[in-house]
């Protein structure tokens, strides 16, 4: 059986070809001359060809060696470039991160954390997707994003859900609404009519549906007549007096809800849990892990909106 041929054989062949001498090539490679000679012999035996013509004064390439030299140089160059690229990525000098998040996460949490990350790692490319809960879970499953930040929409068995923060549910009303003067409300006090909700593909709606089906909240979701797919559209409808809505505190703290009133709900006190969603068995790249660490660090350093708290 022939010896396995690897990068060291290419390095030895190229250096001998450049130096025209086993002695000088061995010195450049920090090898003994006998070790270098054995390496070249292994390469020639595996190829079944003589690559060098040896004379008493000089070592020169054979015709076959002349043809192989540019190929060996290209292979070694490609390998060196690939290894350099891996090291650069490990040292966060280059690379990219793809992350998906619910609208409130992308609007409220990521920008400040991303500013810190870009200051530390300016060469890393970052791709951000604003998705509904069901869509972003699928993107994690398909390896289209490194991780997602959102509520647990469907408890996919192939995904890991690591709790990041929790925020309390409340009622969102116009500032001139009769309920706007309350500092808190019970779920029983929510009017049955004019209730607007996010669509069923969102994590917020999925959670409210589970609460309702278990009897945790006295809300008939089947009576809702208007649904929208994102919180910004919901804010516009509420501002126009088309109804009121149930949202977690973080979702109601974005710019589009300015001028509206968030009233925390109790009896019972219901909270949403926002998680880091990753695929089981898939390690994060160094760049993705660094972005996630920066996000966690930001959450513990910044003042979160009222009724929101980070989970250690």
Q: Keyphrases for this structure?
A:
312 residues, single chain, D-Maltodextrin-Binding Protein, domain 2, two-stranded antiparallel ribbon, 13 strands, rod-shaped, 10 helices, eleven-stranded mixed beta sheet, Arc Repressor Mutant, subunit A, alpha/beta, 3 domains
Q: What proportion of the residues form beta strands (DSSP E)?
A: 15-25%
Q: What percent of residues adopt helix (DSSP H or I)?
A: 40-55%
Strands, total number: 13
| Rounded average pLDDT | 89
Number of helices: 10
CATH-defined architecture of the largest domain: 3-Layer(aba) Sandwich
CATH homolog superfamily of the largest domain: Periplasmic binding protein-like II
Instruction: State the assembly state of the protein chains.
Output: single chain
| Weakly predicted, low-confidence segments | none
Largest sheet properties: 11 strands, mixed
The string of secondary-structure elements, in order, is HHHEEHEHHEHEEEEHEHEEEHE
CATH topology of the largest domain: D-Maltodextrin-Binding Protein, domain 2
Instruction: Output the radius of gyration.
Output: 31 Å
Q: How far apart are the termini? A: 57 Å
User: How many domains make up the 3D coordinates?
Assistant: 3
Q: For this structure, what is the CATH class of the largest domain?
A: Alpha Beta
Domain HTH lysR-type: 5-62
Keywords: DNA-binding, Transcription, Transcription regulation
GO molecular function: DNA binding; DNA-binding transcription factor activity
Family: Belongs to the LysR transcriptional regulatory family.
